[in-house]
Design brief:
The chain has no helices and 47 strands. By secondary structure, it is mainly beta. The strands form nine sheets. Strands 6, 7, 33, 34, 35, 36, 37, 38 and 39 form a nine-stranded antiparallel sheet that branches. A six-stranded antiparallel sheet has the order 1-2-42-41-3-4, with no helix packed on it.
């Protein structure tokens, strides 16, 4: 990039740079991370649903306890589950998304030799590894964890490590990006049924743990833990007499819990699952609202070591049920590109078919669009994760209509996005430029005379599609001030 004019009062205050894409004359321009420049514009995609795919095509095949995660390094999704057709052993399988299709490798057993309950999974971004937790019957259902490495379409595991020497259930796991640790929340079913949490540190293919804490000293169920990136905290949702939440703070290998927060009106929740909404910087939980037999979402706002919860917002009516313990009939993930919440749920008003609900968070509330059916089978045991590479939600479910088979579908939420940020606008193109050609851009205090229908003396804002408007868009970016119907002084 080269400055070719430096008189702040002149109309030729310009830079030259390599164009990324075609630049017509007089268009709002951004600078890219690599130093090239592009026209401000939007990208959009219609909603799309792929074909339902059997995870393991061999017959018979019965599975439950689904949980899933996205491996950002390998750009693969990983599903963990309990194989009911093979002594209820815990297994993991790697999925590859292409467009709206998904294919799977061969499942790998990680809870070897015996029944393994409550499998859970997360991705450790610092170690670039998958971490699983589970409770094997051969070891008195103690809590175990292993580190997994994805290579191609398969996954291998390191040595198993005990994180809790007692009967462990309702296990949930998340990655704390701030502390670069994993956090496991669970119930001590071998003791007093208290809710507990512990911190794990991954090194290579091994994991070590600090000491656990009690985040609840009552009989808890339905535990799910999620990381709040903006707050740099973790939130655990759970059920005792009602749906509750607490903030968990990691410091080194230790963890502490904040004050308990009850839901508004003491809503009793079952089948709880949660995700983090990056756009609103809030956490979202979905659950069966037993107070009015609906399925609902609720938004949580973290402040320090406490969390406030908004009102429960229903997105379907009827009593949500499931086939049994560990069979989660709904799950939720966050679509990063669309900035939407994506829920897969059995639709109790439509023959228990699998249905997707898209939610939008606004402040401390959430709204949902009408459900979109993704199959015509009785659906149970759901899981959801977001594939960043394909910009798609990958939804897993158990097909109760067809031998309880594990199936998956790729769901692409509709979106409209912009390349404009609050910081990257630099000015207007001075003449046209071809892709990879030399672009001339009029920058701060330069005058661009390729506009039309401007009102003299008015301040204009860059819109997300690159046009100019009198009101701020989101993000708010000042373009400059009109000095004639065709001329604008670029904001310095």
């Amino acid at each position: 990039m080269r400055i070719i004019g430096n008189n702040p009062a002149a109309d030729n205050a310009e830079i030259t740079a390599v164009a990324s894409g075609t630049l017509p004359d007089g268009k709002a321009v951004i600078v890219n991370a690599d130093g090239t420049v592009s026209v401000v514009g939007e990208d959009s995609r219609d909603q799309a649903v792929g074909s339902n795919t059997t995870v393991v095509p061999s017959s018979p095949y019965t599975a439950d306890f689904y949980r899933s995660a996205y491996d950002a390094n390998a750009q693969k999704v990983v599903l963990v589950y309990r194989d009911e057709n093979n002594q209820s052993r815990a297994k993991a399988v790697v999925g590859t998304v292409s467009g709206t299709s998904i294919s799977f490798g061969t499942p790998v057993e990680f809870g070897p030799g015996s029944r393994a309950d409550w499998p859970a999974v997360t991705y450790d971004a610092n170690a670039q590894k998958i971490v699983v937790a589970y409770s094997p019957s051969a070891n008195s259902y103690y809590g175990y964890a292993r580190v997994g490495t994805v290579s191609g379409t398969t996954i291998s595991f390191g040595t198993a490590t005990v994180f809790h020497s007692s009967y462990t259930d309702y296990t949930s796991i998340t990655y704390d990006a701030t502390a670069q640790k994993v956090v496991i929340a669970f119930r001590d079913a071998g003791g007093n049924n208290y809710g507990r949490a512990i911190v794990g540190t991954v090194s290579g293919t091994s994991i070590s743990f600090g000491s656990y804490i009690n985040f609840a000293t009552t009989n808890v169920q339905g535990i799910t833990v999620v990381h709040d990136t903006a707050a740099q905290k973790n939130v655990v949702f759970y059920k005792n007499s009602s749906l509750r939440a607490k903030v968990l703070t990691v410091s080194g290998t230790s963890i502490s819990a904040g004050a308990e927060t009850d839901t508004v009106l003491g809503v009793t929740g079952d089948f709880i699952n949660a995700t983090y909404d990056a756009a609103s910087q809030r956490v979202v939980a979905v659950f069966a609202n037993n107070e009015n037999d609906t399925t609902a979402g609720i938004v949580g706002t973290v402040s320090g070591t406490s969390i406030s919860l908004g009102s429960a917002v229903s997105f379907q009516t009827g009593q949500l049920t499931s086939a049994g313990l560990g069979h989660l009939p709904l799950a939720v993930t966050y679509g990063q590109t669309s900035q939407k919440i994506v829920v897969i749920c059995r639709d109790v008003s439509n023959s228990n078919y699998g249905t997707v609900y898209v939610g939008t968070v606004s402040g401390a509330s959430i709204s949902f669009a009408s459900g979109v059916a993704i199959n015509s089978v009785v659906t149970d045991t759901c899981s959801a994760t977001y594939d960043v590479n394909s910009e798609s939600a990958v939804l897993f479910y158990r097909n109760d209509t067809n031998s309880d088979r594990a199936e998956a579908v790729v769901f692409q939420p509709a979106y409209t996005s912009t390349n404009l940020t609050a910081e990257n606008f630099i000015g207007f193109s001075d003449g046209a430029a071809a892709d990879t050609g030399t672009a001339r851009v009029q920058v701060g205090s330069g005058i661009n005379g390729a506009q039309s229908s401007l009102t003299i003396g008015q301040q204009y804002f860059v819109q997300t599609d690159g046009t100019l408007g009198l009101t701020a868009a989101d993000p708010s970016v000042i373009a400059g001030t009109a000095i004639s119907a065709t001329e604008i002084i670029v904001k310095g």
